[in-house]
Amino acid sequence: METIVIDPTPRLSERIRLEREARGWSQGELAQRSDVSKAMISKIERGEASPTAALLAKLSGAFELTLAALLTRAEADGGRKVAAADQPRWRDPGTGYLRRQVFARGDHPVELVQVELPPGATVELPAASYAFIRQVVWLIGGKLTIREGAQETALSPGDSYAFGPPAESAFVNPGAEPAVYLVAVARR
User: Fold this and answer.
1) Which of 70, 59, 125, 129 is nearest to 94 (CA)?
2) Which fold has domain 80-187?
3) All structural domains of the chain with their residue ranges
4) Distance in angstroms (rounded) separating the CA atoms of residues 125 and 179
5) CATH class of the structural domain 9-73
6) What pLDDT band is residue 2 in, cutting at 50, 70 and 90?
7) Cα–Cα distances in Å, from 96 out to 17, 46, 92, 127?
8) If pLDDT is split at 50, 70 and 90, which confidence band does 78 have?
9) How many C-beta atoms lie closer than 10 Å to residue 86's C-beta?
């Protein structure tokens, strides 16, 4: 999988500020709604901090957006075809996981995301990030364990997993090689 070509932090910073302002919220109100500190929101909006996937999931949940929708809004929406070279990539500074937005448009209810999760990495996501979506994960390569609430499910290549009602969740790579998986997201 390719590495990231450009740093999306400035676009993300601007998009988060725009989403907050469009709702008429102060940084304090966004902090309260997202459970992210006001100081961190301020740093992100000023481009002084690169948000992790977990933090972005909290912010997108507060905005009633999927993580993919928030990232897509930071990029320009494309047409019906999304060339491989134009699919935005983002690396989580906390875990190093690489996220490739295969397909997402504001006017389409389905999103496709390819993820490469490094060996030993864990990405925890709050229940709020699943409030407005349904998703299915298909493991392409490596090993992946999904924790959804108290339930833990191990996947092997070719296995798929459908998420249930919103719950605290985690994607865990217990293996010695990257876990590569596709996430299909449908907005409710």
Assistant:
1) 125
2) Jelly Rolls (2.60.120)
3) 9-73, 80-187
4) 17
5) mainly alpha
6) very low
7) 25, 22, 5, 22
8) low
9) 12
